[in-house]
């Protein structure tokens, strides 16, 4: 039996200073939340991947200073590592996109993040993973920035990803 889910997005109004975008993906996995508007930007993202995204680790910025990497780990056995390092204060993530899908036979009933792509105002990082399944995408408005990620991680995979968008 294949379980299909619809990805629904509640688009925020720009009058709210910090809003949650997503999460994209399925309901399974252990939830994590790096904080609503806790940071002033993203300096780098380190992840692991194979046939889907495994670990997702972020180095944030807080008022011009890097914050020690916050790690959301998975099993990672046999996974490849990837790193997206941004020129903080000169480079801003403007779009987050990817694919969610069931990964048979490993996750026959659970949606996982199969791939993720991070587009900045200077270049595109990724796609990381396999571009297969249901696409998701969100364009970050001019002037806004990612101030924290949220998600769910199971034993081996990233099941869902979302983020807080802050508009100064």
TrEMBL record:
Jacalin-type lectin domain mapped to chain residues: 18-167
Keywords, comma-separated and alphabetical: Lectin
Pfam families linked to this entry: Jacalin
GO function term, MF aspect, one: carbohydrate binding
Family matches, as InterPro entries: Jacalin-like_lectin_dom, Jacalin-like_lectin_dom_plant, Jacalin-like_lectin_dom_sf
Family: Belongs to the jacalin lectin family.
Protein name per UniProt: Jacalin-type lectin domain-containing protein
Organism: Morus notabilis
